[in-house]
Amino acid sequence: DIQLTQSPSLLSASVGDRVTITCRASQGISSDLAWYQQEPGKAPNLLIFAASTLQSGVPSRFSGSGSGTEFTLTISSLQPEDFATYYCQQLNSYPLTFGGGTKVEIK
Amino acid sequence: EVQLLESGGGLVQPGGSLRLSCAASGFTFSNYGMNWVRQAPGKGLEWVSFISASGVTTYYADSVKGRFTISRDNSKNTLYLQMNSLRTEDTAIYYCAKKYSSNWRNFDYWGQGTLVTVSS
User: Fold this and answer.
1) In DSSP terms, which residues pair with A93 in a beta bridge?
2) Which of A:49-78 have CB within 8 Å of B?
3) Which end of chain A has less neighbouring CB within 10 Å, N or C?
4) In whole angstroms, how far apart are CA A81 and each of A85, B1, B33, B47?
């Protein structure tokens, strides 16, 4: 099974900050990676798929990059509604797996 | 508008069974693969199972293989998860999630989740 390691697990930041979350795969997965945002008490919401394709309706301050084993999610200017937990997911092979999550909290 | 509505969660004793349902609307259900994903209290996301649009192909996480069965009824626009031999570690919110497209396995719509609690 493909393991995904996210870092950091907790990120403290302020409104307006640029933040970057990293996701590393245990083996190469091409660009078969998605990012989700989950607010407390809600279902996850798709942000990015194919490593860098922004889902329709998602603000352009979110961007994704990477291929192979290393990927990043960047929020260019953190907004109050962005304080949430973020997960990466590999889509290369079953069983599909998620990273452990990164909680973005207010500094 | 795409909607996914899970039901069937509740309290069950270890070793017991439960069947979850996910009623879909707002899209052509029979054209899309579907998934179940769970989240234990305070923990991260865990993919559980996938079923293809036709129902012919299924996959399972190792943690549930042999105990859970995914199925669908395209005439009723409904996805199911039959859960047998339940364990305390199966306690979680269970979400159904729609596969994005035939080319991409990511999930573009999720239900609100249904809570399964396995406890004596």
Assistant:
1) none
2) 49-50, 55
3) C
4) 11, 23, 31, 26
